[in-house]
Amino acid sequence: MSFLEISSATKSYGRHKVLEDVNLTIERGEFVVFVGPSGCGKSTLLRMITGLETITSGTISIEGAVMNDVDPAKRGTAMVFQSYALYPHMTVFENISFGLRMARKPKEYIASQVAQGAGILQLEKLLERRPGQLSGGQKQRVAIGRAIVRDPRVFLFDEPLSNLDAELRVQMRAELMDLHRRLGTTMIYVTHDQVEAMTLADKMVVMNGGRVQQAGRPLTLYDDPDNRFVAGFVGSPKMNFLPARVVGSDMGRILLEGIGGSARLSLPFAGELAVGTSVEIGLRPEHVSLRPLLPTESSEALVGEGKVAYVEDLGAESHVHLTLTDGTAVCLRAARGEASPGTTVRFFASPERALLFDAGGLRLRNRSARTK
Amino acid sequence: MTVIRLARRPDVWTVLKWVVAIAVAVIAIFPLWWMVNVVFSLPGEPVSINPRLWPTSVAAGIDKIAMIFAETEYFRAYVVSLIYSILTIFGVLAVSSLAAFEFSLFDFPGKKITIAIVMLSLMVPTAVTIIPTYLLTSELGWLNTMQGLVVPGIASAFGLFMLMQFMRAIPRDMIEAARLDGAGHFEIYWHIALPLSRNAMVTLAILTFMRTWGNYMWPLIVGTRPEMYTVGQVVGLFNAPLSHQTVDVVMTANLLAAVPPLLFFLIFQRKIVEGIAMSGTKG
């Protein structure tokens, strides 16, 4: 039995389904990140776990106990809101201790809990201030402090860093990781930023259209996505998708044609694929190169041609954006000065790195050549 | 240099605006000033052939005030009016804030239609409801009692409307955070919604005071016995055609009635303006 189990959970408002058949297990102490575009249902799922939203069908259980009808305050969850949701008329001390005061805890206990929480988050000197006198980062820490003193079984974070500037966000991210390491409590974190998800998560849950698309370790999702959505969502710059057509299969290999207009590629693939099927090849930008591959790397590299649309120079590297003859856009990582806009260049990619997706966006796994 | 000089010269519109503003202020203030003038002068002086626009005798004014307190039940009326106003204020604040809390922060079946009915009552003139209200009060046996004066005024559609606008601006996250912190329904109201609406509550309290203190009609028909007379009724007696009072005595009674709301307004005018402005926009 897992620490937190969500089974067949759905959520609908009238006829409109927000979440469909969500199944997920979370282990004790895990840092789980729900990630997906706006409106994918990730915040709703978080709110269902904490009890702020009802569960239309299915169950959510923590440590074996079904939580569906348990009062939000009694689920042992604590939530940090995107807007911090601090009480503006209370001091930091009163904000942090509010939950304990509502639970009618003794004064000495409250004082010691707040002192401990404030110590962890370095808020000792701010206890008498009001939220209006705090910076964004400090407010965020107070919001986390309010969660910590309740000693919850699960911390829930709803896009907590999205109101902070870029520099502070990186700093707070490190602080959160450190906090998780020190407390060892289960944390569930919602974000639409896949970089944040990649850096924080033990387990990353990619959601879209009210469904869990894939859940697993961030690098597993990066290297071995289940579908085109996950492949495209995880990673920046995004994975390239090149349309192709199956023209033949032979001896555990398939031959693809019409890639980006005219290129051909022979791929090792064990599976049924009829001639004439339309597929898509997924290639990460770092797996496409402007230099010919070494013979040891690949015998039958994908070779294509495209016009350089624009180049993003980032200092250490450049992102070169190509437009192929059929209009497909391809982005690749290159060294500085390797390509200049307006020129036509050749690009190379190893077939071993290519992922295949069917017309519906599902991954076509090559069972023979790839290991999970 | 020319630019600065041009900028300093007020244009026609600015001058016109000031002229209109001053004219309105004079029209508003003159009756009050005239009242003060009549009270603090020797009898007949301000209305003589050669009238004066400023008080001539403070002693005469004090004599008149002392006379009114000594010879009429004015002090008792003051106490009745004060209790009437304070109880109404607390009643209006309690009922309006509780109702506004529910209406603005929670959803429940029939919410829209209930709000619509309450808001509709804002448009019904008092004259229409006063007879049914009187009959009901009379049925309850509340004529000539304090509860008869106070209770019908407690359900204030205006107060509800104002606090609702204000409480709508309280972020939902904050209410949810309180729920997760284990606060019950009433605790959320008491610890979160109420303190956050303090400004609006103060404004509503002041506006309620002004309205209650100046209310003439309802006390007139409910409190018919002299011991239940409010300041408004007593002033009415002074003003009555057959009261045989001279102008300066009537004016003194009026001035005494006008002092509490005037003081209130002078002290709280910034809060009143702020609160009304806020109830229209956001908290």
Structure description:
The complex is a heterodimer of chains A (372) and B (283). By secondary structure, chain A is of the alpha+beta class. Chain A folds into two domains: 4-233, P-loop containing nucleotide triphosphate hydrolases (Rossmann fold), CATH 3.40.50.300; 240-357, OB fold (Dihydrolipoamide Acetyltransferase, E2P) (Beta Barrel), CATH 2.40.50.140. Chain A has eight helices and 21 strands. Chain A has a six-stranded mixed β-sheet, sandwiched between helices. Chain A is elongated and about 75 Å long. With 283 residues, chain B is mainly α. Chain B has two domains: 12-42 and 55-65; 69-281, Orthogonal Bundle (MetI-like fold). Helix content of chain B is 73%, strand content 0%. Chain B has 14 helices and no strands. In chain B, helix 8 (157-167) runs parallel beside helix 14. The longest helix of chain B has 34 residues, at 247-280. The two termini of chain B are 44 Å apart. The A-B interface holds A 50-52, 72-74, 77-79, 81-83, 85-89, 98-99, 102-103, 146, 150 and B 171, 173-174, 176-184, 187, 191-192, 195-196, 198. Chain A: It comes from Consotaella salsifontis.
What's the layout of helices and strands?
The complex is a heterodimer of chains A (372) and B (283).
Chain A: E1 4-13, E2 16-26, E3 31-35, H1 42-50, E4 57-62, E5 65-66, E6 77-80, H2 92-102, H3 107-121, H4 136-148, E7 154-158, H5 166-183, E8 186-191, H6 194-200, E9 203-208, E10 211-216, H7 218-223, H8 228-233, E11 240-250, E12 253-259, E13 263-268, E14 278-283, E15 288-289, E16 302-313, E17 318-324, E18 329-334, E19 344-349, E20 355-357, E21 363-364
Parallel strand pairs in A: 3-8, 3-9, 6-7, 7-8
Antiparallel strand pairs in A: 1-2, 1-4, 4-5, 9-10, 11-12, 11-14, 12-13, 14-20, 15-19, 16-17, 16-19, 17-18, 20-21
Helix pairs in contact in A: 2-3, 2-4, 3-4
Chain B: H1 2-8, H2 12-39, H3 58-71, H4 74-105, H5 111-121, H6 126-139, H7 146-150, H8 157-167, H9 172-180, H10 185-196, H11 198-213, H12 217-222, H13 231-239, H14 247-280
Helix pairs in contact in B: 2-14, 3-14, 4-8, 4-11, 4-13, 8-14, 9-10, 11-14, 13-14
